[in-house]
Amino acid sequence: QVQLVESGGGLVQPGGSLRLSCVASGLTFDYYAIGWFRQAPGKEREGISCISSSDSNTYYADSVKGRFTLSRGMNDRTVYLQMNSLKPEDTAVYYCNVLRFWGQGTQVTVSS
After folding, report:
1. Averaged in consecutive runs of 10 residues, what is the pLDDT profile of the chain (112 residues)?
2. How far is CA 49 from CA 13, 33, 82, 112, in A?
3. Please, which residues have CB within 8 angstroms of residue 100's CB and are 6 or more apart in sequence?
């Protein structure tokens, strides 16, 4: 049974940083592309970053490019999303995804 668990969300002031984690059980991340998505209240879920399976290239939505960094952990079951220079519009529930599997999400709130 595959499970993904996100953590690391919270309340942060504008300009602050958070690091989100996604830990998998039931599979390893080595062979799969992994994505981070977010969903703000009243909006559709949007893809913000992904990392390829083959060469670990990373891709970012324009809205987060230059501020967020997606990386694989030292083990093969963890990925991280480092988020810097956070803005109020980054407020959302953040989800990781691999294949058809989704985590439960972690809330990020950026507010003064």
Report:
1. 96 98 90 94 96 85 97 89 98 96 97 96
2. 22, 11, 11, 26
3. none
